Each structure stands twice: as C-alpha cells, then as structure tokens.
Amino acid sequence: MWSVVKGKLYKKFVFIDFETAFEFMKEVAKIVMEVNHHPDWRNIYNIVEINLFSFEQNTITEKDTQLAEKIDAIFKKLISN
C-alpha cells in the first residue's frame, strides 16, 4: 500500500534478490519513459523505495496515482512468476 510521507506518495518494495529488484526497476523505467513522469527512487540490494510527486504542481497529482497503479501491476507480475 502506498502512503503519503513528507507530501509524496511512498512505497517500499522488497524482492528476493538484487536481480529481481533490478528487473523491476527496468520494467518501471519503461513505463516512466512512456508517461514521461519520473519517480524519485532508491535501490539497495533487494529493496526499491519509490517516491512519487509532481514537482511542477508542487503536490501529488493524478499522474502520480496512475503511475503508482502501474508500478503495483509490475510488482505483482514479477512476484507471481
């Protein structure tokens, strides 16, 4: 579940290993490029933390919530394989 932390949508994703975390990041990057809305993210080994925020509007927007849904779908797809 995404939460609001310091005014941004935030979620922490935990994977079994770095390879899976990196695969997740690659899939998210494809979507990010398509929608031209970029996350603030961080990866440490098997953990990916993502913050979503629309800097132009200085708030969380529909673009952020839509991207969050797409990211969740990628995560679900990866962990179900």
CATH topology value: Gyrase A, domain 2
Q: How many angstroms separate the termini?
A: 21 Å
**Overall number of strands:** 4
**CATH homologous superfamily, by name?**
Transcriptional coactivator/pterin dehydratase
The structural domain count equals 1
Q: How much is the average pLDDT?
A: 95
Which term fits the overall shape? globular
Provide the low-confidence segments as ranges: none
CATH C-level: Alpha Beta
Given helix and strand content, the structural type is alpha+beta
How many alpha or pi helices? 2
Overall radius of gyration: 12 Å
Kindly estimate the percentage of residues that lie in beta strands according to DSSP.
25-35%
The share of residues in helices is: 40-55%
**What is the CATH-assigned architecture?**
2-Layer Sandwich
Describe the main β-sheet briefly.
4 strands, antiparallel
Q: How do the SSEs run, as a string of H and E? A: EEHEEH
Strand order of the largest sheet: 1-2-4-3
Describe the structure.
The structure is a single chain. The chain is built from two helices and four strands. It has helices at 18-35, 62-80, and strands at 3-5, 8-14, 40-44, 47-52. Strands 1-2-4-3 form a four-stranded antiparallel sheet, covered by helices on one side. Helix 1 (18-35) packs antiparallel against helix 2. It is globular. The mean pLDDT is 95.
